Amino acid sequence: MSKNTMDKFSPSVHMSKIDVVIPYSADNMLCDNNGQRMWWAFLASSMVTFFGGLFIILLWRTLKYLWTVCCHCKAKKKEVHRITTGEHIKRVDKGDSAASEVGWMTSVKDWAGVMISAQTLTGRVLVVLVFALSIGALVIYFIDSSDPIEFCKHFYSNYTLQIDMAFNIFFLLYFGLRFIAANDKLWFWLEVNSVVDFFTVPPVFVSVYLNRSWLGLRFLRALRLIQFSEILQFLNILKTSNSIKLVNLCSIFISTWLTAAGFIHLVENSGDPWENFQNSQALSYWECVYLLMVTMSTVGYGDVYAKTTLGRLFMVFFILGGLAMFASYVPEIIELIGNRKKYGGSYSAVNGRKHIVVCGHITLESVSNFLKDFLHKDRDDVNVEIVFLHNISPNLELEALFKRHFTQVEFYQGSVLNPHDLARVKIESADACLILANKYCADPDAEDASNIMRVISIKNYHPKIRIITQMLQYHNKAHLLNIPSWNWKEGDDAICLAELKLGFIAQSCLAQGLSTMLANLFSMRSFIKIEEDTWQKYYLEGVSNEMYTEYLSSAFVGLSFPVICELCYVKLKLLLIAIEYKSDQRESSTLINPGNHVKMQEGTLGFFIASDAKEVKRALFYCKACHDDISDPKRIKKCGCKKSKTAAHKKMRLACCFGCGRSAWGCCCMPVNVHCNLDSPRRDIPLSAVSVNECSATLRAFEEDRHSALSPKKKQRNGGMRNSPNSSPKIMRHDPLFIPGSEQIESMDENVKKYDSTGMFHWCPSRDIEKVILTRSEAAMTVLSGHVVVCIFGDVKSALIGLRNFVMPLRASNFHYHELKHIVFVGSLEYLKREWETLHNFPKVSILPGTPLSRADLRAVNINLCDMCVILSANQNNIDDASLQDKECILASLNIKSMLFDDSIRVLQANSQGFTPPGMDRSSPENSPVHGLVRQTSVTTGANIPIITELAPLAKQGKKLPVISFSQDKSSGTSIQMITELVNDSNVQFLDQDDDDDPDTELYLTQPFACGTAFAVSVLDSLMSATYFNDNILTLIRTLVTGGATPELEGLLAEENALKGGYSTPQTLANRDRCRVAQLALYDGPFADLGDGGCYGDLFCKALKTYNMLCFGIYRLRDAHLNAQSQCTKRYVITNPPYAFELVPSDLIFCLMQFDHNAGQSRTSLSHSSHSSHSSSKKSSSVHSIPTTNRTSRIKNRDSRDKQKKDMVYR
């Protein structure tokens, strides 16, 4: 075929040398006969628009400037004329009125500004719509980029051109609004968005006119991506600075990348104009994107490269800018992405599953202790998810702990002080929020302030959320009362560690080992079985017991508490220690071991000691008809006849709920289990911390309603003397010796204030600290005995530990005045002066300025004759090294144990180790009031000798006698009862040198803790979980530990920071009638027959029936099971022994005893005349031999004493 023939049928049209061949297909129409390209027309439309508008703006500005100059000259001449003629005054008013009028141009400009701004809803919608349409136009460009750069197609057949035309008409209108609203038209004309419009909008209209499309500079629409962060801010999606910065960097980088790729695509597919477009190459747009990326990253594979001169020239300049941008933007983007919080998401609540939020002091130790107790297997399946919120990301160890519990634990990084973070963890739907405190911080007040701020933030965000927070200092609890939405009646609780810690230690002064027993009861411990017959076997059997609550079966309705308690122990193998009593006014009170006067009601909540939550269900399922003949308690299940009773009980509860005005879900009548109920309880009805008779008037009315069931003796409960078997046992003690701080107020007139305004504590008028200070010589002459020595380390800079919380349980009003143990503080006077403001209203308190490390000071206070020595420190948290935090307490403990004392004549109180129940025949030698355990002491030879013996012949005369013991050796300080406070659990290994405790052994498994001689605040961590599952537990613990502190009393202390005295009224005196913890000796007395090989269950029943005493544990000698003649004097705790547990004579029994009205009536046996022994009389008289003038000369004595301290050495 000839060349002409081929040209005739060629799909292309040959043009002259300066023309270009335009390809076309069957669908494309021929634009003109020559096939000439019209790219210059499209470009010219944009250039004319841009430069034409720029010229008009500059021309307008020039003319306006000239006009202003001319008018200014004329105005000056007119002003001179007005001033000379005096017409300017009249024209000023007219000018002001004209200036105050707003022209229509200004109104239109303001309207246009409002339309394009994002301050209004219309403006935001318009801005977002423009951005979306710009992205749409960019997408159309991506589609058209697959076609030739310039091709002919009719407007009506090109759908993408039609859509692009519609978009650009909208852009033109928006451009007009922007132009009208612009204050500076010149700068507006030169803006990036304006330039984009110049080179994209006019070519579209040219395309319609010429019926051809030119891809041209439409890629400039990619520059609109720079505004992406602004759009997201308008939509309230981006809120943090890091997220805004990240989106800005990404949008600038991507828009620059896409725009540069569009330019390369244009010039490479078109060719150089001076080469007649013959050097073009076919590159797709995405190949150009790839080329720009490898160029920016300086990789340059060489597979794709620019051939045209324009493309290569552009690449030269782009490498300079693009490389700089790539090197700066990309690392910053990666850094921002890498610095994004790993735990910065949001919690997604699961239907049917509750979650709690835990915040505050989140460390590996605090979290592991919390999870170990909260997720303990004895709670069955806890269907609660734990969400931790902390502003610091967890370390590797803590992260590994979270991963091990990933099914129930989630961690989010944030702060509860930030409402956004609270929203992330869904605090509004959380079942509770728990705030952990740093127990080892150097500044407890600052830590409490931080937790209070957390409470304020959470309550401000969601006032109805239940909060359980740890507090370090008791006086800081008052600040929580200032929060309007804080409501302890709705479940909000503050667990004050100082209050409970010192309360536990104070109770150990009354019954040593009680702190260990109570700490084990509210902590979840797994049962550890030991086959060997060692003391650890019996101790660990008791450790597996915990405290639970469950509603009592209807079979118990109408029975008295002692009867139910005995039935539960014997039949159900459960120990019932308290109940929640509801009065007719729907108020609830926690009654600990109430007497026969309390009859059980329907739906009564009981507090049990048991080893498993399933065991406590027996109290709910028990049916007398079905289970009366069952001997195995495991067979007690829900019986068939209980269904009808259950239905009736449900109706009763619904009626109760209706009366309460609450739903059945929120009413307090619904059963709640302390440790295993999967639904978190809510306290809708307040629970009082008073144990027995806070609502005594209600109970008396209850007695009158049931008078037919009460004996005449029981009706005399509120009378004067009570001699019935139901009377409470009492402790017989000597009169307190007259020493500073031990005033005799028992014989005061009834109109004198003896108790605080609530009637819960003994009270005396405030005294100056100088009146209670003892010099060393005065203390040595006083012959202190049966007292409590508190060795405290502290100075002026030490944080206050709140000694009031230690003294209050020892001054509870359920003790008679003569039963109060004298308290002697040995420590820095500067520190004790700071504490004295809260102690000056308590009787029988003395201070010996000195140091607990001085043996002279310890001998002066007769530490060998004290009932308990307590070692505390206020300096423990000021040391960074954890192993040295307890150095002072450990040194003081070892110092006391290494002391030797002359044992030639020791006057001791016979019943310091136990008490004699009333109702005994005191004339008989076997029931002598001088009874109790033979107190053992270690001597230098290694043998143990008794230091308490009975004087039976003198006891027959009915006199209260001191007991003396003679020894040729010296007794050791190891026989002194002592309890030491520790901060670091591992330091317990240094207290006892004869134990084999491993440093990694848990605290509760160590010998000092099992013996009750060591206590650490870490054991109180378990109270957070126990309080969440049932806040009644915290009420019960406070009742047992604090001696009767109530929320009302906390409110009074918040007002005045001191106890306020009150006159004795029937209402306040009734508050004295409440139980207290004591230890019962089996060596002699009415239970001596059971002490030698008897069963614990028989003792339990006898004590309960005869004296209404509730036994709940044993304090046994460590080597009692060895039957050795020489036994160690150390004792350990056995909680809730089984019925058949064999007793030994040396056992001390933990029991809850009733208040004894008789103990305060007769004082004849308590006078000094009863001290018939020569040694006792001699030492008593030495007290009165202290001259009164010594009080006035104390300052001189104290100066000389301080001078002697510098030369003091250990003796």
From TrEMBL:
Q: Which residues form the RCK N-terminal domain?
A: 353-495, 785-929
Cellular-component GO terms for this entry: monoatomic ion channel complex; plasma membrane
Per UniProt, the ranges with Basic and acidic residues bias are 1196-1211
Task: Please give the start and end residues of each transmembrane region.
Answer: 38-60, 125-143, 155-175, 187-210, 246-267, 282-301, 313-331
Question: Which GO MF terms are attached to this record?
Answer: metal ion binding; potassium channel activity
Location comes to: Cell membrane
Keyword check for Disulfide bond: no
Substrates-to-products reaction catalysed: K(+)(in) = K(+)(out)
Q: Does the keyword Iron apply?
A: no
**Which UniProt keywords are listed?**
Calcium, Cell membrane, Ion channel, Ion transport, Magnesium, Membrane, Metal-binding, Potassium, Potassium channel, Potassium transport, Transmembrane, Transmembrane helix, Transport, Voltage-gated channel
Principal localization?
membrane
Q: Where is this region: Disordered?
A: 706-733, 1163-1211
In the bilayer, the protein is annotated as:
Multi-pass membrane protein
Matches recorded under InterPro entries:
Ion_trans_dom (IPR005821), K_chnl_BK_asu (IPR003929), K_chnl_Slo-like (IPR047871), NAD(P)-bd_dom_sf (IPR036291), RCK_N (IPR003148), Slowpoke-like_C (IPR048735)
Residue ranges annotated as compositionally biased, kind Low complexity, are 1165-1185
| Similarity comment | Belongs to the potassium channel family. Calcium-activated (TC 1.A.1.3) subfamily. KCa1.1/KCNMA1 sub-subfamily.
What's the name of the protein? Calcium-activated potassium channel subunit alpha-1
Tell me the organism.
Answer: Oryzias latipes
Name the lineage: Eukaryota, Metazoa, Chordata, Craniata, Vertebrata
